[in-house]
Structure formats: C-alpha cells, structure tokens
Amino acid sequence: MSRPAPSPVYTLRGAGAPLNSLHFRCPGGETPLLFSGSAKGAIHIWNLNSRRAERVVEGHSGQSILWLSTLPSGDALISQGRDMQICLWDLKEGRSEAVDSVWTGSVGFCQCSLLETSPSNYLLAFAGQETEEIQITEMPSKKPVCTLMPDTKLGMVMCLQLWKPDSGLGPLLFAGYEDGSMLLWDVTQRIELSRVKAHPEPVMCLTFDPRLRRGVSGSCEKKLSSWMVDSQNNIQLQDSVVLVNPGVSQLRIRDDGRLLASAGWDHRVRVFGWKKLRPLAVLQYHTDMVLSVAFSDHQDPRQRLLAAGSKDQRISLWSIYNETADKALQGSTD
User: Fold this and answer.
1) What are phi and psi of 327, to 5 degrees?
2) Domain locations along the chain
3) What is the rounded distance in angstroms from the CA atom of residue 238 to the CA atom of residue 214?
4) How far, rounded to the nearest angstrom, does the alpha carbon of residue 193 sit from its chain's CA centroid?
5) What is d(CA 69, CA 304) in angstroms, rounded to the nearest whole number?
6) Burial class (CB within 10 angstroms; exposed 0-12, middle 13-18, buried 19+) of 327
C-alpha cells in the first residue's frame, strides 16, 4: 500500500493576509530566517528556530507585496509591491529602513528577477510601464541597462528570470507573456534569441535550471510545460505534465536539482522529481489557493525545508525528500 502524504512539520500564522511571496535565508552559523510578503504590504521576518515573527516591516503603502529577495551580503532585503515600487531595505543591527527605491510603472503582477554580476553589483529585471516592456537596471547605481520590447503584440509580461550562461555570453533573460509565448532575450545585445508558444493561456510562472539548461513553466491550464535551451540558444519544447486540476501560481527547483515544487490553485503543493518530472507527492494542508513556494538554502541537507504560502493566510513548512525523511517516502527522484 502507498503511504499517506506527510503533514507539515509546523505552520506559521499571523500574517493576516494572503502570502504572495516567500524567501529563505539560512546561512550557516546564523539564525535561519523566512521572509514572507503579504497582500496588505507587510513583510514578516520569521525566526525558524523560535517559529515566530522576529520583525514586521510595513512597506509599499499597504499595497500587496509581489516578490522578495535578499542580496548575497545578507544584510539587504529587496521587495516589490503593487505600488509600482521596488524597495531596498537595510536589515543591519535590527534596522528595517527602506534606503532606496526604483519606480517600475507596471500595473501587473510580474515578479522581478535578480542576477548578481559582482560581489557588489547586480542586475534587476522588471516589467515596465508599457504592456510588453521589460526594464533592466544595474544596482545599486540604478543605471538603466536596456529596455526590451518584442516586435509583435504578445500582451502583458507575466514572469521573468535572468541567468548567466557558462559559455561567456552576457546575461540572458526568459520572459513569459500573456498570449502564452516565451522569449529568450540577450540582455547585452538587446535582441530576441528565441521564441516558442509554451501555453495556450498566459504563462503564469516559470523557473530555469542553468546547470541542465532546462526549465518548466505553468499556466492557468492543467499542464506544466518542460523545455530546454540548446547550444544555439534556441528554446526547445519537451515533455509536458498533465495536472489533476488547473492553475499554477509558482514553480521552484531545489538547489540540489532533485526536486520541483508547484503552488496550485487547487490548494495543493505538488512535488516532482526534476530529472524526469515524475510526480512524487501531493501536499495537502491549505484551505485556499497556494500562491507561493520556496525551498530553504540550509547548508546541511538534513535541515532543508519546503515552504508554501496560501491565500488562507498561513505558511506551511515541510521536511520531505532530504536525508532525514522517511525512507519509504523518499523513493527515487530520478
């Protein structure tokens, strides 16, 4: 008989609004943290040892938080809100101050993407004021790098991911659009390298594994679309995975390249083996849409967690398919 699905190891309550974004920071020797962004503009900084909110940062004029990330230095937090602002926060010595901001002009829900280019510099990609416009800015100088606009009407930009190939090419950018198209852009040359029709509906989310040059995208349909980038930087559609219910809010690949997690509109988190997209587990806890998922970056694999944030205002944390997981549950992720 198959074993029942696991339960969360614990849950976090008190956000008081739907959880649109999650981001872990679990460096060795320091307190492991989980950042959550809510639909009421609150950023909760959860201490994973005490399982309580260490601090709450109020920002973005009470508008929904769309995206969160921390800089490699660990002392700066970046947040994106529906107030058309991307804010940089200083977290040193318990401070919670917005020290800088970038205005996007975007009215959509497209989440930013960040790419470190040196220890002190990074690129920030975000949807711009025009429907199909993507802006790339160098930070922290806020120097504009380029504006990317397709030569045909594709509708609103829905999702983005920057990445740097090993081939020596400059930064590249994946972008999913409202008409279901996915484009690969060369940021340095400001040109479109490849385009595919990945979905019949808007591309709601995507994630990419640079090591395998392989990615996956989701939509409001009952399917995940898998694709790869060949040596000529052309996107090649591969297999698809049919889901039980339609709608995917977010997709995340674990750092070790073994697992893929999806946040479902059907209140469930689904876990797949990343190599062959084999379904491994369906995690059921939430009573409303799951809006966000994130894998922790613990240095010790045995401590790794999967977090899910939901419209039901709760965060669930799961310990699955790591070195402490039940052997019967682990199985093969090949």
Assistant:
1) -60, -35
2) 18-103
3) 9
4) 23
5) 18
6) exposed
Non-local (6+) Cβ contacts of 161 within 8 A are 113, 173, 174, 206, 207, 208, 215
| Run of H or E including 252 | strand 248-253
Vertex 205 angle, CA 194 and 129, to 5°: 75
pLDDT surpasses 70 at 327: no
Return the percentage of the chain with pLDDT > 70, whole number: 94
Residue 334: Cβ within 10 Å count: 9
Contact indicator for 26, 299 with CB cutoff of 8 Å: yes
Q: What's residue 29's pLDDT?
A: 76
* CATH architecture of the domain with residue range 18-103: Beta Barrel (2.40)
For the cut 60, the answer to whether the pLDDT of residue 185 exceeds it is: yes
What is the C-alpha separation between 69 and 62, in angstroms, rounded?
19
- Helix, strand, coil percentages (3-state) for the chain, rounded to 5, are 5, 50, 45
Q: What confidence tens digit (pLDDT) does each residue in 138-155 have?
A: 999 999 999 999 999 999
Report whether 249 contacts 243 (CB < 8 A). no
User: Tokens 């040193």 — which residue?
Assistant: 92
Pair of tokens at residue 159: 């999702």
Span 21-77, pLDDT tens digits: 999 999 877 899 999 999 999 999 999 999 999 999 998 999 999 999 998 766 789
The residue to which tokens 């020290």 are assigned: 99
| 3-class SS letters over 66-108 | EEEEECCCCCEEEEEECCCEEEEEECHHHCCEEEEEEECCCCC
b or e along 42-57 (b: 16 or more beta carbons within 10 Å of the residue's beta carbon)? bbbbbebeeeebeeeb
